[in-house]
Amino acid sequence: MSKSILIVEDNPTDFLMMKRGFEKVDADYEITHKEDGDQAIAYLEEFRKDKGLSIDGIILDLNMPGTDGREVLVNIKDDDSTKMIPTLVFTSSNDPSDVERSYDDGANTYIPKPMEINGYNDIISMIHDLWFED
């Protein structure tokens, strides 16, 4: 059975590297991509109304223009219909206050983005193993 993953990421290269990482994992993933917080919140509202939609996990960047990932995280965790969805913050920020705030707001984990492109496959494999493997 496929897993439905929502990736909220404004950087096209980062999204492409995550998508390729999921393609290399020996599992069936349905990836939904939203490029900013406003699109993500609109999709979450659609999910809350349409019981036919599925979200098994969310990978969320923090630093995006407009509605940022911090606001999206609060939106996810403050609603009973979405608060139990594993939400993984995957960001370039190593600021300790971002880490602390993310956990305070309900993030299930905080993962710094790799400095090198090759690191994406390892991280996505780890995400699969720890969060989404059956």
Features of this protein?
43% helix; alpha/beta; 134 residues; 5 helices; globular; five-stranded parallel beta sheet
Q: Any chance you could write out the topology, listing elements then pairs?
A:
Blueprint: E1 3-8, H1 12-24, E2 29-34, H2 37-49, E3 57-60, H3 69-77, E4 87-91, H4 96-104, E5 109-112, H5 119-132
Parallel strand pairs: 1-2, 1-3, 3-4, 4-5
Structure description:
Strand 1, helix 1 and strand 2 form a beta-alpha-beta unit. The chain has helices at residues 12-24, 37-49, 69-77, 96-104, 119-132; strands at residues 3-8, 29-34, 57-60, 87-91, 109-112. Strands 2-1-3-4-5 form a five-stranded parallel sheet, with helices on both faces. Helix 1 crosses helix 5 (119-132) and helix 2 packs parallel to helix 3 (69-77). It is globular and about 35 Å long. The chain contains five helices and five strands, in the order βαβαβαβαβα.
Low-confidence stretches are none
Q: For the residues shown, what is the average pLDDT?
A: 93
- The whole-angstrom Rg is 14 Å
Q: Helix fraction?
A: 40-55%
| Main sheet: strand order | 2-1-3-4-5
Order of helices and strands: EHEHEHEHEH
Structural class by SSE content = alpha/beta
Strand content: 15-25%
User: Termini distance?
Assistant: 9 Å
Number of strands: 5
Q: Report on the biggest sheet.
A: 5 strands, parallel
Q: Number of helical segments?
A: 5
Overall spatial form: globular
